């Protein structure tokens, strides 16, 4: 009985344990599910935090971009306001001139009216004079008739007088004949006879009655003189009448000219107002173009930018230092356009879609924004772009009509290139984005070595300086040919964003001279090669990349920094770069390349010179965590100098620290050396506020080298 009773009890116990185990298992599974849910929630929370961080970063970028755009828009608004003010001033001036011209025209019209009245009075006087002349002509005819009558009468009297004289002479001769015969006999009586005859004649003349001939002649002479006076008066009157007619004709001519001038002034005023309105409309269009160009600029990394007004006159536009030249011929604008705004931007290679994967741009990208719309130029403009390839057989020009990223480029076949000339040219009747393109799949190494060895540079606003280093194998086999190309190309690289280079055959070093170097604040990035090209280097096991040295000229001596670059599958090599800033990390070249941290070699300081300001910023610069004013006091600068530095640089740590080193180096204190700097930075006062340990080691190392 006891055995039979124990069996159910055991079964019941086992069942209870199983139920408890099931419950425990369920609880464990529930807890596991809860833990999994918690892990999922934690993962989701982490993702949300990351998304939030990204969103915050994007928002910060958007705010920075908006601030930049607001600043540009405000500048454009100010510029537009200034232009409107200038136009208003010009309009006011033209209006005043127009009013002045209108007043002058009114005065001239009044003068014309007065001259018209004078002309009428003169005509009245002329009519009166003409009537008087007519009367005088009648009187003159009467006088002429009287003169003819008197002349006839005088002629008749003369004839009668001659007859009477002839009769008297005949009678006198008859009386003298007896006396004459006696005179012949007696000569002495001849003289007395002649006297007697003379006496008789005088007696006859004395006794002859006087005739009115001489009185009539005096009257005729007086009449002739009077007639001559009247003729002179008439001629004077005729001249006066002719003069008055000429003056009237001149007055009419002046009045017509004044009326024409008034009409022209009215038309000119209307035309000027229309031009002012058209100018304001053009300003609004230009503002839209500027906004469009700002949209383009916001998506590209612009080196330089220039905005010009293009008219129908011949223009040469050069972007100095950027390798761009544009020639626009005269009378090239469309018929309905007198001018348009052209915004030119020069950018480095970035997010562009090229015609082929194995091709590459060998020039900056030159972008043009304008307000011509779809209209084209009547005469083609000539665009010249600088590139960096010595052999031009496989060069072509690409263009993109896109105004936003990504920019899709396609090849056009109208470009002109010449070996030894660093500029390519193209004739175009429209404006978009252009660049010079090299097709790698059909280009040999000698054609691409020039591109790989040259340097693009620019001084952008934040004083950063970016350049790319290319690793090219098999240099020794093409040194001589490369050298000849260098001599040809050297003269063409004196301007523009591309710098010339030299090859030192003895040291196997390529040297590049970089003009216009900033004093400080440089950064550097290596080219990010794709994996296919890295694999090509790996497969060429016998090729050892050569050493490249980038150098530039400056006022101060500069040390060398060595970067160890390792490429998997090839032997080690070194790229030695002269740089005024500390460089601790770099982008990787493909998936098989890495660059180690900077190594400062003692050989670089063998000249035993005191540290320059570049040296100080290179070694200490960006890594100093101490308060710059405490470092300045430790270096010996006074409080007034530090206060002035703080005011000038708004308390920015890096800028203030750079100025402290500059003041110290340029004679702000009596001593400047690596030993002095190591002593200052080792002091408790400075080190208490957080000098990085590595910095002090570097300074001590420099002190030992010196």
UniProtKB/TrEMBL annotation:
Keyword Endoplasmic reticulum attributed: no
Biased composition, class Basic and acidic residues, residue ranges: 16-25
InterPro entries, A to Z: DEATH-like_dom_sf (IPR011029)
UniProt entry keywords in alphabetical sequence: Coiled coil
Coiled-coil stretches: 234-261
Region annotation (Disordered) ranges: 1-25
Descriptive protein name: Death domain-containing protein
Lineage, highest ranks first: Eukaryota, Metazoa, Porifera, Demospongiae, Heteroscleromorpha
């Amino acid at each position: 009985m006891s055995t039979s009773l124990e069996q159910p009890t055991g079964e019941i116990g086992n069942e209870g344990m199983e139920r408890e185990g099931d419950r425990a298992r369920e609880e464990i599974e529930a807890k596991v599910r809860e833990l999994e849910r918690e892990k999922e929630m934690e993962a989701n929370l982490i993702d949300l935090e990351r998304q939030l961080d990204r969103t915050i970063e994007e928002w910060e970028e958007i705010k920075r971009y908006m601030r930049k755009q607001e600043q540009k828009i405000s500048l454009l608004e100010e510029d537009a306001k200034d232009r409107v003010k200038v136009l208003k001033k010009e309009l006011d001036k033209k209006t005043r001139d127009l009013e002045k011209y209108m007043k002058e025209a009114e005065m001239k019209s009044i003068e014309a009216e007065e001259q018209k009245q004078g002309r009428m009075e003169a005509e009245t006087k002329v009519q009166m004079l003409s009537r008087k002349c007519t009367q005088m002509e009648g009187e003159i005819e009467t006088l002429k008739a009287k003169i003819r009558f008197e002349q006839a009468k005088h002629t008749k009297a003369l004839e009668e007088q001659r007859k009477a004289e002839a009769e008297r002479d005949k009678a006198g001769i008859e009386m003298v004949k007896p006396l004459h015969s006696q005179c012949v006999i007696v000569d002495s009586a001849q003289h007395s006879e002649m006297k007697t005859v003379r006496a008789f004649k005088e007696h006859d003349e004395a006794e002859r009655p006087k005739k009115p001939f001489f009185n009539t002649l005096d009257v005729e002479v007086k009449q002739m003189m009077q007639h001559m006076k009247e003729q002179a008066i008439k001629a004077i009157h005729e001249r006066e009448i002719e003069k008055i007619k000429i003056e009237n004709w001149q007055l009419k001519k002046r009045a017509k000219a004044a009326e024409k001038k008034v009409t022209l002034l009215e038309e000119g005023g209307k035309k000027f107002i229309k031009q002012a309105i058209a100018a304001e409309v053009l300003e609004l269009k230009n503002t839209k173009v500027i906004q469009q160009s700002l949209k383009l600029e916001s998506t590209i990394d612009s080196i330089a930018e220039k905005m010009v007004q293009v008219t129908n006159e011949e223009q040469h536009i050069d972007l100095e230092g950027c390798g761009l030249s544009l020639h626009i011929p005269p009378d090239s604008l469309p018929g309905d356009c007198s001018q348009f705004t052209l915004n030119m931007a020069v950018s480095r290679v970035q997010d562009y879609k090229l015609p082929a994967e194995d091709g590459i741009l060998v020039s900056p990208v030159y972008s043009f924004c304008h307000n011509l719309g779809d209209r084209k130029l009547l005469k083609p403009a000539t665009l010249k772009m600088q590139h960096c390839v010595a052999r031009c057989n496989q060069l072509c020009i690409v263009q993109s009509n896109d105004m936003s990223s990504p920019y899709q480029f396609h090849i056009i076949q109208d470009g002109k290139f010449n070996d030894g000339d660093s500029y390519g040219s193209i004739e175009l009747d429209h404006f978009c984005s252009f660049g010079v393109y090299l097709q790698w799949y059909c280009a040999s190494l000698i054609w691409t070595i020039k591109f790989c060895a040259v340097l693009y540079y620019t001084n952008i606003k934040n004083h950063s300086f970016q350049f790319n280093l290319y690793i090219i194998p098999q240099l020794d086999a093409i040194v001589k040919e490369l050298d000849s190309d260098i001599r040809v190309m050297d003269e063409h690289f004196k301007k523009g964003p591309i710098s010339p280079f030299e090859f030192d055959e003895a040291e196997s070093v390529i040297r590049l001279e970089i003009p216009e170097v900033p004093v400080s604040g440089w950064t550097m990035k290596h080219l990010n090669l794709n994996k296919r090209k890295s694999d090509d280097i790996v497969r060429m096991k016998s090729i050892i990349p050569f050493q490249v040295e980038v150098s530039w000229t400056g006022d101060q001596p500069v040390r060398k920094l060595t970067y160890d670059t390792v490429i998997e599958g090839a032997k080690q090599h070194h790229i030695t770069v002269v740089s005024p800033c500390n460089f601790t990390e770099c982008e990787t070249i493909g998936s098989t390349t890495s660059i180690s941290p900077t190594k400062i070699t003692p050989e670089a300081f063998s000249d035993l010179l005191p540290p320059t300001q570049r040296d100080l910023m290179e070694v200490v610069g960006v890594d100093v965590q101490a308060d710059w004013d405490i470092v300045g006091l430790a270096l010996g600068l006074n409080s007034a100098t530090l206060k002035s530095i703080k005011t000038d640089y708004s308390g920015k740590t890096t800028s203030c620290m750079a100025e402290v080193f500059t003041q110290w180096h340029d004679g702000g204190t009596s001593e400047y050396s690596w030993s002095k700097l190591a002593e200052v930075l080792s002091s408790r006062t400075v080190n208490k506020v957080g000098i990085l340990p590595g910095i002090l080691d570097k300074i001590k190392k420099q002190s030992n080298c010196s």
